[in-house]
Design a protein that fits this description.
Elements: H1 4-8, E1 16-19, E2 37-44, E3 54-58, E4 68-77, E5 80-83, E6 100-106, E7 116-122, E8 126-130, E9 151-156, H2 160-164, E10 184-188, E11 193-198, E12 209-210, E13 228-232, E14 239-246, E15 252-256, E16 260-265, E17 272-273, H3 274-277, E18 296-301, E19 306-312, E20 323-324, E21 335-336, E22 341-346, E23 351-355
Antiparallel strand pairs: 1-2, 2-14, 3-13, 4-5, 4-9, 5-8, 6-7, 6-9, 7-8, 10-11, 10-13, 11-12, 15-23, 16-22, 17-21, 18-19, 18-22, 19-20
Length: 361
C-alpha cells in the first residue's frame, strides 16, 4: 500500500481560510443560528522557491443551492427513484456540463441523512443515479418511500471549473502548457492521483482544464466527501480560491473505499478532532499495536511539513486503547482543521462514516 508521505510529502505547505463563514486561524467550533449562504476564501502562500511549491490539502464544505427539494414517491429499481411534485425536463439533471447530485435531506432513519449520489438520467418524475463507489448496491437500502417518505434535494455538483475557474471565470491558479509548468489540482481516484492543470487565459478555445490529451476537464466532479490537493508554484504571489455556497444543515455521509487509500474531506466549515470524527467506532475499522498493523489516519503537520500518522490501538473502554502517534499519549484531541482533508489507509471492506452536525442551523 502506498503511503501519503511517499506520494505527497514534497508538495505540501500551509494555507489559511478566511471569509464570511470562517476566520483564520480556526481553533473552535462554529455555531450557526440559520443556514447561511456565503463564502470561504482559501489563501495559498507564494511558493518558497522555484523548486519547492506551496500547496493546500483542501475540502469544500459548502453546497450549491438546491434546484429541487421533494419527497420520495417510490423506489423504482436498484438505482431509480421517483419524486412527488416533480415536473422535470427529460435529461435536465443528466448533463455532463452541469452535473447534479441527489442527496438525502430528511429520513426516518437518521443514519441515511446526508447520503448522496450522482444523477445519470431523469424523466419528468424519476431520477437514475450511479451507485459506483458509494458502498450501496440498492438505493432502497438508504432511501424510503411510503407513509412517511424521505425527502431529497437535487443540487449542482462542485466541479473543477466551478471551484477553480473556467473559460468564463479566469482561474487564479497559474497556467502552463504542461502539468509541470502549471499549478496543479490533484484528485484521488481510488488508486492514484489524477493531475489537472489550466492551460492559459480565459476566453480562448485552447485554454482548458487538462489531464491527458486535449479534452476539457472543467466538468470533472469533486464529490462532497473528497479532498483536493492544490499545488501552487508561483514564487511571486499567493493564490486565492473563493468557495461559494450554503453551509451544511444536516449530518453528512462520507465513503471510505475498501482495502486502499482514501482522501477524506472535513465535511463542515468547522474544526473537528480525531476522536470526535469517530472512525474508530466504525465496524470494520482495524486497530493494532502499531501503525503497520492497523488502519491509519494521516494529518498534515504544517510545523514539521510532514504527515503525522495515527492509529487506534483496540477496543472501546480500555485505558490502553487510544489514538496513538508516538508513545502512549492519547491523541484523540488532535485537531482536523476546517477546510482540510485527511489521508486514510484502510485494509477492510468499504465503510460509511456519518458525521453529526456540529452546530445548530
Amino acid at each position: 500500500m502506498k503511503t501519503p508521505n511517499t506520494l505527497l510529502r514534497p508538495i505540501f505547505a500551509t494555507a489559511c481560510l478566511t471569509g464570511a463563514l470562517l476566520t483564520c486561524p480556526l481553533h473552535s467550533q462554529t455555531t450557526a443560528t440559520t443556514t447561511p449562504v456565503g463564502f470561504v476564501t482559501v489563501t495559498i502562500p507564494a511558493a518558497p522557491s522555484a523548486n519547492v511549491p506551496s500547496s493546500r490539502a483542501l475540502s469544500i464544505p459548502l453546497y450549491k443551492s438546491a434546484d429541487f427539494v421533494g419527497a420520495v414517491a417510490a423506489v423504482d429499481s436498484v438505482n431509480q427513484l421517483s419524486l412527488t411534485g416533480a415536473a422535470f425536463t427529460v435529461g435536465q439533471f443528466a448533463s455532463t456540463t452541469a452535473p447534479r447530485l441527489v442527496r438525502v435531506k430528511t429520513s426516518a432513519t437518521a443514519a441515511h441523512v446526508g447520503k448522496f449520489f450522482i444523477i445519470t438520467a431523469n424523466t419528468a418524475t424519476q431520477l437514475t443515479v450511479d451507485l459506483t463507489g458509494t458502498g450501496v448496491t440498492n438505493i432502497a437500502d438508504v432511501i424510503t418511500a411510503g407513509v412517511t417518505p424521505d425527502t431529497v434535494e437535487i443540487l449542482p455538483a462542485n466541479t473543477i471549473g466551478t471551484v477553480f475557474g473556467n473559460a468564463s471565470t479566469l482561474p487564479t491558479l497559474a497556467a502552463g502548457a504542461t502539468a509541470s509548468a502549471a499549478d496543479n489540482v490533484l484528485l484521488w481516484n481510488g488508486t492514484a492521483w489524477d493531475t489537472y492543470f489550466w492551460t492559459g487565459t480565459a476566453g480562448s478555445p485552447n485554454n482548458i482544464w487538462k489531464r491527458t490529451g486535449n479534452t476539457d476537464r472543467s466538468n470533472t466532479v469533486i464529490y462532497p466527501d473528497d479532498g483536493v490537493f492544490v499545488v501552487h508554484k508561483d514564487t511571486g504571489s499567493q493564490a486565492v480560491i473563493t468557495l461559494m455556497g450554503t453551509v451544511p444543515s444536516t449530518s453528512e455521509q462520507s465513503d471510505i473505499g475498501a482495502s486502499g487509500n482514501s482522501f477524506l474531506a472535513n465535511r463542515f466549515p468547522t474544526d473537528t478532532t480525531l476522536g470526535s470524527l469517530g472512525l474508530h467506532l466504525l465496524p470494520g475499522w482495524s486497530s493494532g499495536a502499531t501503525a503497520n498493523s492497523a488502519d491509519t489516519v494521516n494529518v498534515w503537520n504544517a510545523t514539521t511539513s510532514a504527515w503525522d500518522t495515527y492509529f487506534w490501538t483496540g477496543l472501546i473502554g480500555s485505558p490502553n486503547n487510544i489514538w496513538k502517534r508516538t508513545g502512549n499519549t492519547d491523541r484523540s484531541s488532535t485537531v482536523i482543521s476546517a477546510g482540510t482533508a485527511i489521508y486514510i489507509a484502510h485494509t477492510g471492506a468499504s465503510l460509511n462514516l456519518t458525521q453529526a452536525l456540529p452546530y445548530t442551523p
